[in-house]
Please model this.
Amino acid sequence: MSLNNEEFRPKIVAFCCNWCSYAGADLAGSSRLAYPADVKIIRVPCSCRVNPMFILRAFEKGADGVILCGCHPGDCHYSTGNYYARRRMTLLFSMLDYIGVENGRTRVEWVSAAEGVKFSQTMNEFVEKIHSLGKNVRLGDLRCRN
Amino acid sequence: MYKIAKENLPALFQLIAGERELYVPVNNNGQVNFAAWTEGAVVDLDTLKSVKSPKDAFFPQSENLYTCYKDGKKITIQPEELQNQNFVVFGMKACDVKGVEVLDKVFLSEPVDSFYAARRAHGTIVALACHEPEESCFCKVFGIDCAEPVADVAAWMVEGELYWKALTEKGEALTKAAASLLTETDEAKVEAEKAAIRAIVEKLPYSDLSLEGWNGDALTEKFNSPVWEDLYKPCQACGTCTFVCPTCQCYDIKDYDTGHGVQRYRCWDSCMYSDFTMMAHGNNRTSQLQRFRQRFMHKLVYFPANNDGMYSCVGCGRCVEKCPSSLNIVKVIKAFEKQGGDQ
Amino acid sequence: MSSAKNQAEKIKEISGVNPLKCMKCGKCSASCPAFNEMDIKPHQFVSYVQNGDIEALANSKSLWKCLSCFACVERCPRDVQPGKLIDAARQLVVRQKGQTGLAPEEIPELLDPELPQQLLVSAFRRYRR
Amino acid sequence: MQRIGVFVCHCGSNIAATVDVKKVVEMVQMEPGVVHAEDYQYMCSEAGQAKIAAAIHEKNLTGIVVCSCSPRMHENTFRTAAQRAGLNPYMVEIANIREHCSWIHKDMEEATKKAVILARAAIAKVNLNTPLQPGESRVTKRALVIGGGIAGIQTALDIADAGYEVDIVEKTPSIGGRMSQLDKTFPTLDCSACILTPKMVEAAAHEKIKIYTYSEVEKVSGFVGDFTVDIRKKARSVDANKCTGCGVCQEKCPSKKAPSEFNRGLNTRSAIYTPFAQAIPNVPVIDRDACLKFKTGKCGVCEKVCQAGAIDYTQQDEIVTEKYGAIVVATGFDTIKLDNYDEYAYNQSKDVITSLELERIMNAAGPTKGHLERLSDGKHPHEMVFIQCVGSRCSDNRGKSYCSKICCMYTAKHAMLIRDKYPDVNVTVFYIDVRTPGKNFDEFYRRAVEEYGVNYIKGQVGKVILKPNGKLLVQGSDLLDNKQILKEADMVVLATAIEPEPSVRQIATMLTASIDTNNFLTEAHPKLRPVESPTAGVFLSGVCQGPKDIPETVAQAGAAAVKAIGLLAKDKLMTNPCTAKADELMCNGCSTCANVCPYGAISYEEKEVNDHGIRETRRIAVVNNALCQGCGACTVACPSGSMDLQGFSNRQIIAEVDAICR
Amino acid sequence: MQELISRAKELLADGTVARVLGWRAGDLPYNPEPAYFTTAEELENFVYNGFCGANLSKYMIEASKLEGKTMVCLKPCDTYSFNQLIKEHRVDREKAYIVGVGCKGKLDIEKAKKLGIKGIESVSGAEMTNAADTLTFQTIYGEKSCSYAEAMLERCHVCKGKEHMVYDELIGESKDTKDAERFAEVEKIEAMSPAEKFAFFQKELSKCIRCNACRNVCPACSCRKCVFDSTKFDSAQKANVDSFEEKMFHVIRAFHVAGRCTDCGECSRVCPQGIPLHLFNRKYIKDINELYGEYQAGADTESRGPLTNFTFDDCEPSIVTQR
Model:
């Protein structure tokens, strides 16, 4: 894809809940707070909609990092969704760590609709982290490479 | 007849692997399976049976058929290349070799499966006699002599030495290639080994298993027998028996979206699975009883009926050892035997 | 300073009490039978630990006036339990003096089924001072 | 296969300055399903929408992707435009190439590349979209209010005044609730009865309000707009139609030993009774546990003296089944039990009382006819001590972790009233903090101190000791003077923590309304939806949601009424079509999904299914579309993947993932 | 065993149960199979010994659909699975007459074979009545023996206890077999570097042949249609193409049974490739215990599972990097 094959451009999927984090990303946009274009956002109704299979699927198909953003605990539009998401992701990340996948490749961050700055900062940090980890080789399907 | 000391086998493997691919039984974390020989691989010739049969040297669990590449609206299709390099499978047992013969019936008859045919054409089998057969073995029932395997090369391990006898042209060619490490010898020790093995085979608990009644004739009767109802119940519908079996040949064809195209591949399927032969209208066999029956009817009735009496079971006993519910083809045969006796 | 901080941490660790939970209601001081004998009052223990002023606490009369009756522990609505803090401060002092106060092997002889163990232990510490 | 049209917006230069929109148009045409792609200056303008409509007609589009600003901005605009052009609005997806792309990236090549990928993801999703229809459900134009206290009465009145029928279910024999037990109210010192009884009468007289007293909610089924409720009318043993409320039966009843609930057990009442003189309805009930006729079979005095012939010993409980569109919970509160607080000697001395008991003592209709006296010996007290925060703000397991909110104010009220009426009585208040946020609240408290000389001491009481001479010794601390105080008192009043009326638990369970660890009903959103329960159609009024004083309760009651009216005013409810749906053939019936549903939208049915020829009856999850809000928690909890979310299905999200990662 | 048989006959005779679910003697000394018995004659082939490792609770899903009650023999560890299945409405308690059978540790014939014991003709010491510590094998190649514990399944070395969690009656005694720490293996892996962890699982999982035995015997994997067989999820794959798929399969499977897995150990028992699959499930059990409080799935039939529950102050996912 990239014109310059030497340069590593990570593929990063960000799942954002519709009510807080997606709006936070919108605010980052309208505030012109830049973060790398490597991040692509998928809108979901709530962080609790994100199935661990989606995250593994992203890695399978070549993602180098996956981040999930939702409302702060206590602020979920659906009251309790992010509490379930929090447990699910904790366990999923723990398992990925356990099988030797670098634990920096996954992250959960609570971003409110007012936190455009935080959204942008988080994405910048995350992309930097993925750069430091390099290409994801431990959790991808070989057939999707090249 | 040639021989080579056991401690020189690594050198032999290195020599063969130098010019072609070599598959040997390798111990990986306590489990022995056939794998490509590499420097440092733990070759295990003492374990009688590999977990999976070596059939995947010729019929791999998954193999690519072709790849489609998509670029904008342009699609190119690239068929997978056929096997064009020679390779050797070292250490197959008589039953496994017979298993390949069963596969030949399926894949080499019209329409010929070109992927399989290419591998068969390029593969050389070195078969090893079974030094100490085990209680789950019943190859004798199918007329297989594990003391004297029929392959490109037959081999025996006797008192720390491997005896080597080429039986085909391919075998001769391999012998020539390995000549520098082989020394000529007579067959006396091998004869003694054969006799010893055959004596043990006589003592095996399953050796007196009778296949009487398992010919194509009693097809409907067998199919409708109430015995199945009782037999299948412990079956949990996993595919273990199928995947360790040297003769199971069913596969599924699937597409994988690589993001930049599609890979069409085939992979082993199991008649024990609920989605086996699933079609648009649904499934031919809707119950586990039917699927269970299919497996054994195929091996013991349909296959021999279509292949001059050749059963598609070789008595390797892997399913006997591996079934999570302790079911197996022997229990099926015996159950019918008992029922026959009762009547 | 840092050692005072460490000591405060030590007290929290020994007592298992989080002084930040205190809402300064004074129920401990209201419950304390030894209140009048004390220079630093039970409700003040908490802020002393909070502020890291362990030196003053360690040198206070209160440290040895507390009867360990645990009325404050029982009644504290916030689970802050000043009695445990003072007990921990005592242990700290005793440890600093290089004594354990009471060797474990001595205890069986002293055991009297009528006597609350807490009293035995704390009183013994006091007399061995 | 879909026929997809892609519309790329320039947004003036907002997008076009950083994203090469022409390139995006060119690239998306390579994507599967795309049959049309164009760009335009302002897609959201009328002209832009017209382009979309034209393309839908000309190219027979089945799906649309608009590459533009955030869907939070214009998704609705484009959906409506599509709908007008005859396309199902849920066949529209937005690729956010402004906020998430052009505005944050500078490099045109990079931003263009990203815009293409975002468009691809949206296209991949639309390929799997299916037309969705919002469901409709009818609304029964009648509301149920559970609880007949001031919250319930106010809610009912407001709903009834808007023209809708309301039923109040009250479990005691009369409406009125806690407020009817109060003597005066802060900070105005109005007489509680004077302001409450007119409301009670108004409710009783209102043609739209029906009151079920001595009744309880037995069963609730259905959902927003269409609840079915069973109400148990407990046997009163008095025919309400015949009773004239003359009160002779109560006078003549020989069994007068039952503790009076209304007077908090401080005195007794007859077995046939109305809780208080102004009770509504003014129809007595027979307490069958106390009645001699029921206990021994002998007596029947009331029947003999009743000239109206209203006494009916054979009355049975009756179940009334009614339909409602909305339910308001107004179950109120009670004070906590003080069994765990030995140190205050509440169970040891009659002169240690709770504030609510003091209300009754101060009340002219109370056990002492309004005279302040010690209950132990009837003597006039000279020293009174008030203790604040009894059981409130406790993090141990004896009390409640929250602030009960009303105690500071009513204690100031009590102190003031006592000092006013009995200047010889000294009043001391032990407090931790005095909390007076509210209109005229702090002024009120200051008056107690400055004008009435109430002695406020900062510090909690550790122990109350009953002295042999009958006096009470209060041992407290004065934190400001750093002293321990020993004070002799004649009476001690405990500002006891309040807790939700315990029966609210069963009611919440019946309503599938969620409840917090303190048994307070949870609001749908703590800031933005404070009077709604997460369960659609259920509203919260008064202390059942959290501690409140009367004005706040009345305000919330009104707010709950407005929410209920807003619901009842609709003829039909349009439900969000992006709801969860279980695949019958895959569902295990394991109940995992129902466990995580915050709305109680999932129930189970025994249903016959045809699974590829196998017919069997299975337990299957059924989602109520009227209740489901589409969060998707169930879809992930479901182990088999049977539960899916329409509009955000597993395959749709996976398609987006694939499109982004390829 | 005789006591079990006579009790089964009684229950059949008095009509309490319509069938008995137990084990039938195999054709080799070590391969009894799960089986239903409906008559006293059939019960002559009933067997219960050290080789009856199979967890019969999953069979009760089907048996719950049958007419009448089924007497089912459950070992202490099996009863956890049964409880969990009750909780998930997959079995009908009313359709089961549970005989809690004693257990002295179950045997893994593979372990004996690994010790070089082959050509087995008969085994003694595996009977339930015999408290023998030694197993004696008559083989074609002579008499061999090993200690009972040596040939025991991994799960029995970390046994959850002798108590049955649910039963109608108990027959037979159980023995403490626990002689290892349940989480020791998990801790060992946790202590590895990421590269070592990766290598460890890569090596183990490369053996996987996707036979689905682990899934199909698992009482928690009781889905009518597994997501891996479902075309609806776009996750159906049977290929064994590269190591990713195996990882995906086992990680997702572990996640799906997280909080529901009772650690019955069936997955590891049946894996034809000897992959220690329990290491996945046990990792989750350990995590759950540490992060959300001790939880044993199947200890009761009412409690909420840890993944369908939460507290307001649960740890954040970043704890994974902090530990």
